[in-house]
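pinging the channel bc i need a second pair of eyes. not urgent but kinda urgent?? the chain im working w is below, pasted from the shared doc
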Amino acid sequence: MTPNDDRWPALPFDPWRKTAATLQLWTQVVGKIRLVRTPWVNHSWHVALYVSARGLTTGPIPDGDRVFEIEFDFIDHVLWLRTSDGHVRQVMLRPMAVAEFYADVMAALAQLGIAVTINTMPNEIAGAVPFEKDRLNKDYDRDAAQRFWRVLVSTQRVMTHFRTGFLGKVSPVHFFWGSFDLAVTRFSGRGAPRHPGGVPNLPNDVAAEAYSHEVSSAGFWPGSPGPVDYPAFYSYAYPAPDGFAEAKVKPDAAFFSKLLGEFVLPYEAVRNAPDPDAALMDFLRSTYDAAADLGAWDRAALECDLGEAGKPRPV
């Protein structure tokens, strides 16, 4: 046990990797429902989920004269489907195949009078199969899912504060179900070279639109099979300016992954730091500094002091 276990709980990847794989696909089912019902917003911001007081939510989704919302509740382990005219359905979160989860969600929507058809092929996952055919991914560890959400809550808090120090275009702190990460992105205001695409099961036009402008982006992901099979924070620049990989960033545990093309900070280094919030903020600020300085961003015009509760920004 560490003093930070409550806000920054242990989340070793290997013990919950099967649950993580299943949960990523479940969030894709829900995310794709938001995708098909919401007008396109630049950089695919309209598809993301958001950290809530109990889990992850779509926020309001249009449905004619009403709206509906779908929320993963990782306290009571329920998927809630609620409409603005007072109707509710629920799907219990338990060990079950992706195919069963997909069928249950579609049935609940039909009972609410919501007709939705989605593309059932998962995005950004190599070798994936359509939701209705996936009977392999079926694990759900309640404790691990809740600890993952608690990490997202703490990360969202720090990222939200970091976001306040920017006057230019900046994304919400939002959860992308394709890559299964929580992210925040700052923009220089300049266009970027067309992204080459090549992301598994993701149209190249979507990748090109997402990276249409120069960015410094940071986030958290829980790990995956491969070179970073542990939870970690990341930060990258697109396009990466000359010298970015050699930049000195904080804290000392952060490093540049040539394979990924981005800075990586192991989650354990933050969790075990004397002040985890400060360690993560150091990483966010120093990696952004490297991208902005080396990329010659107009920092004087784009930045401001970090926000304080109840105090208007001085102008």
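so Residues 142-302 form one domain. and The radius of gyration is 20 Å. — does that match what u expected or am i reading it wrong
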